[in-house]
């Protein structure tokens, strides 16, 4: 049971923020308070509902124990109904009070790479990227390709893009890992089903305040961009390779003709990779506790299989199977898997929190 003192403190904090919002004038303070207000609004609405229900329960219990038999009978009936609703309302509030991943509101760097399976893997990587493009469009997010390496047969050997919008990481983070496809390749003459794979990485883009990069820690090399087969496609040294010396992380960008633009994109990716590495380090400290949860985001973990002959998509982490492969790969029904993963993660974290409190 959530203590009434905690509920009262939550409501009090919200009311203090509302009072401060009518007094402050600085834009930074207004933005900060507005963000806090927005984050708490739905939670406080649910907290007030629970608090009101508890007050009603107390009144009804008093009436049910009174001398007026008719009133006591009515009170007992209403009391039974409210007591049946109370646990569900309390669990809803507990879900909303779960600690939020501070990266959930972030935009992301999305990386899709062909894995085992040759040309078919590259084609599948292309299918996955287009699925995410459509999913982003449906959510009102903007996708900008940062770099890509196309396969001669079609699709991508690898592609990087920034996905910008509100709450991108919250919805995309469980897509990280190995995606496996089972289908008959276009080049297969005997109709045999082949298995190929592609890996997906979803890196939250940090704000400048989240991570600092010292210029002295960077080694920056410039060279001429090259195309397929290694031939030069640019007559100037526009390609950029940035090495973060302390960690050994290397980022190369050569898609733009401008060295300045390539450097800016490389720094964007480098910042995201260093931020994700730090997040992974912190998460690893709790890996044993979270072993049974939805997933770590490890790109070596096989998370989902797309079976074309049976039009079946299975997410192995939550044992969810949907027979609507075409709609999912088109991006139109991907939210059914994403929502199920988010729900399971919340349930896992709630169980963990209750276990810690026991």
In short:
The protein is α+β, with helices and mostly antiparallel strands and 358 residues long. 46% of the residues lie in helices and 20% in strands.
Write up this protein.
The protein has 358 residues and is α+β, with helices and mostly antiparallel strands. The chain folds into three domains: 4-96, no CATH class; 108-205 and 295-351, Alpha-Beta Plaits (2-Layer Sandwich); 215-281, Double Stranded RNA Binding Domain (2-Layer Sandwich), CATH 3.30.160.20. Helices cover 46% and strands 20% of the residues. It has helices at 4-21, 27-64, 69-96, 118-138, 168-172, 259-284, 325-329, 334-357, and strands at residues 108-114, 142-150, 156-164, 177-183, 194-204, 218-223, 239-244, 249-253, 302-307, 312-315, 320-322. β10 (312-315) and β11 (320-322) form a beta hairpin. It is flat and about 90 Å long.
């Amino acid at each position: 049971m959530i203590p009434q003192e905690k509920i009262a403190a939550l409501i009090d904090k919200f009311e203090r923020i509302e009072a401060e919002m009518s007094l402050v004038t600085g834009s930074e303070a207004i933005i900060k308070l507005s963000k806090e207000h927005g984050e708490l609004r739905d939670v406080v609405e649910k907290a007030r509902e629970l608090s009101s229900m508890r007050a009603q329960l107390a009144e009804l219990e008093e009436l049910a124990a009174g001398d007026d038999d008719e009133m006591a009978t009515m009170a007992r009936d209403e009391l039974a109904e409210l007591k049946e609703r109370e646990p569900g309302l309390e669990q809803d509030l507990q879900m909303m009070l779960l600690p939020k991943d501070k990266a959930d509101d972030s935009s992301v760097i999305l990386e899709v790479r062909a894995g085992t399976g040759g040309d078919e893997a590259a084609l599948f990587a292309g299918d996955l990227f287009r699925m995410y493009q459509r999913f982003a469009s449906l959510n009102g997010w903007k996708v900008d390709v940062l770099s890509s390496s196309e396969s001669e047969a079609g699709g991508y050997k690898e592609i990087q893009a920034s996905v910008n919008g509100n709450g991108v990481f919250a919805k995309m983070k469980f897509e990280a890992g190995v995606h496996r496809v089972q289908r008959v390749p276009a080049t297969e003459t005997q109709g045999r089903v082949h298995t190929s794979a592609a890996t997906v990485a979803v890196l939250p883009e940090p704000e400048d305040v989240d991570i600092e990069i010292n210029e002295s820690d960077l080694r920056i090399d410039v060279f001429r961009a090259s195309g397929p087969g290694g031939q030069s496609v640019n007559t100037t040294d526009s390609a950029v390779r940035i090495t973060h010396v302390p960690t050994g992380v290397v980022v190369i960008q050569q898609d733009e003709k401008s060295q300045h633009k390539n450097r800016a994109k490389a720094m964007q990716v480098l910042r995201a990779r260093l931020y994700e590495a730090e997040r992974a380090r912190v998460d690893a400290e709790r890996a044993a506790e979270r072993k049974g949860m939805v997933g770590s985001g490890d790109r070596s973990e096989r998370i989902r299989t797309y079976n074309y002959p049976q039009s079946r998509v299975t997410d192995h982490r939550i044992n969810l199977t949907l027979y609507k492969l075409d709609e999912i790969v088109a991006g139109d029904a991907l939210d059914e898997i994403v929502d199920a993963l988010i729900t399971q993660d919340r349930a896992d974290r709630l169980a963990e929190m209750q276990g810690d409190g026991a």
